[in-house]
Predict the structure.
Amino acid sequence: MDDEIQLFRDGDGLAVIGDPAAVERFLVSEGLPVKGLGTRRFGPALGSASGFAQVGSDIAAGSGRWVKLTKESAQRIDKIGLRKSATTGLETGVLKGPKGQVKGFVEFVKGSGPLKGNPAQLAGIATVMAQFAMQQAMDEIADYLATIDEKVDDVLRAQQDQALAQMIAVDLEIKDALTIREKVGRVSEVTWSKVQNMPTTIAYAQAYALRQLDALAEKTERKSKIGELAKVSKEIESKAREWLAVLAHCFRLQEAFAVLELDRVRETDPHELDSHRLGLRAARKNRMDLISESTERLVDRMHTAAGTANAKVLLHPTTSREVVHARNHVEVAVVDFHGRLGIERDQESLEARRWKDAAVEVRDKALEKGAENVDAARRLGTETLGRAKSATGKLSSGIANRALRRHGGDDEG
């Protein structure tokens, strides 16, 4: 007797639907996690708010898992040859293999599967997958904020602007809405009425944080004396991390609101579910591009400041080293931040710039005394950057432990 599993892939993850044993065998055969970090179970734990009643009895029975794809695992799935829907943007397919064999899924079955030809069900599964990806991002950002130990509430309370200070209330309201969604199984009109206007406040806070980062970047352009540049660089090192934390908090709230929004659209305008989901994805990419541009601009300015410090290192070895140290720390913070938001391309470009600058610093061997100081700072920054990238790639096991505690071991079986 053969097993069949259905595969669904979007831009973030892979859903595998079928007999639980077959699903697990496929995940193992492809080197994908069966449980824990980066995986979520389709099943009753999420309730009807995630649309299980609309996406087929197999999924409702809890016989599927969603897995976050890395660049490497996505390349392995590419080899299967899934077919992409122009309507949903979802890649789908069915694999068939001998029962009980880990490596048995070798046959791609054309035109098979209980969800074939049912646009409503495909829209439902695509929406559930999008919500899983959002919830995964929320967990990773929460872990990031805990790791850097930034008290975002303190930063927000210190602001005189009322819209920014209101972010604390927005956080509480959205958390309440998510809790009610989990208990009730849907986003009711009453719940929606409490949160529907909150994206404006979140967007304002994001724009404010981006302006603060831009203002920090501009400060280096107005300083020519090395002593002033060192003072400004240390200020940027201190403040940039705070505003990155506020941006991460905004991004997390936007993901949470999108989870609620998709539930509401499914209930009130189900025929628009696909287009709305794709619209949210486009809006999310726009936000990430905006954040990327602002944070990279800050790092660029810090690189320029470090270049100025290098040029004056013989006369001012101590202050020059302080500027380079600040540049290193800001860059590490931005790389870590980018990694948690999934901006991998920019991590690579930042790393490329770092090695370019390192080469320039090594070239300036004539300035032996000062060069030793700068090179020591560079080496420290390189080591710290490596640690940050490693932590970003693995994330913290705390996410997995927290997720298991939250769902009471849903990922078992």
About this structure: Strands lie at 2-9, 13-18, 39-42, 64-68, 83-84, 91-98, 107-109. The first helix runs from residue 20 to 29. Residues 150-400 form one domain.
